[in-house]
Amino acid sequence: MAKALRRTLIAAAAVALPAGAIIGFNLTAANAATGFPAHYAAPYLQITGSDAGQMSADLKASGTKFYTLAFIIPHGCTPIWEDGGNGLGAFVGQVRSLQNAGGQVIVSNGGAEGGEMATGCTNVSTLTSVYRSEATTYGTNRLDFDIEGGTLGNSGANDRRAKALAALQKSDPSIQVDFTVAVDPGGMPGDVMGMLRNAVSNGVKIQLASLFPGLSSAQLWGKLGATFIAGRNDDGTPFSTSDAQKFETFAAQNGMGELSFWELQDYDRPAGYAYSKIFNKITGGSTPPPPPPTTTPPTGGGHFEAEKAALTNAVVATNHPGFTGTGFVDYAAAAGSAVQFSVSRSSAGSVKLTFRYANGSTTNRPTSIIVNGATVTSIPFGTTGTWDTWKTVSVTVSLKSGANTVRVQATSAPGGPNLDSLDVG
Question: What domain range is 344 assigned to?
Fold first, then answer.
């Protein structure tokens, strides 16, 4: 996308919109273990040195915590930001401030004008390293690829991109990939489907009904997003705040995973962040619990990663190093936010629960420990000095034979600590 982006309407959404509304279509992997809630708004920001502060301004105005930063384009095989030519590593301070406030960013590649890294970087191994550096530099595991224009028809670049992303996901399974692509009333154009089929054939993990027919309707909706032009598109087609409200309702009713729009600085800021305020209503919901284990769960003890537990008003994050598994849980700053583990025991009795956590604030992050629905004790989760410093704390509780739930629930407005894992026994 760019400031002259054109998008057309996906047929499935027509019930919620007037004729001629503008939409983009995001195809994404599951939201679990990405640092994002199950449903969220992530407006685009065409980021430059003069408008990087818009994330903080919009957060204050609308509560929006997630943003899609556009666009990384190639300078040979060197990634740069399209608007201003800043190198990778620019705006890290603003991104860290957002992350410290509980937010996260998606790094977007491509757009309508500057090409995409696979067009300028022709070595797959090097391209894989470039994509990895985007994620690590900005402390995110979500990458977006807005593929359009001449880049869409570049079969060599499409193949290189797919191979590089598949290699990156193989080396780091936490990496999630979005494709933002055009649709029309008849569905996705043939060149879009060709690019996506190439990605899937090379092993890139994305979701789309015709490519992954085994998913239920609810699962598919949860992996889809929509991107609009906020206001009037260059062809004169309007997308008003009333249209935005209609579509947010439609998206929420169907369980759509992501809503976005183009663009924060030049389109939404003059409107008083009205589109952010409307679309951010979809943000929330707990991360869906993982599927039942395919092996017998531990009966005497075991290690349980927090990012695989059931979450309430909390998200999985990766922006502080030192965690185990694929991430840690970042509680929302609210009482009642919680992480709930499922623990199986072969017999009833007392057992030690050891929680690994970080608390970089200067005050305790108190929680209730709720076992099988009853509060049995509390843990203050004292400060660890920094958010990158991890410590453990243990309590002894009684568990019954068979299935148990262990819920770690925040009791005050600051929320809980960053919770990494639970060891039982």
Answer: 302-424
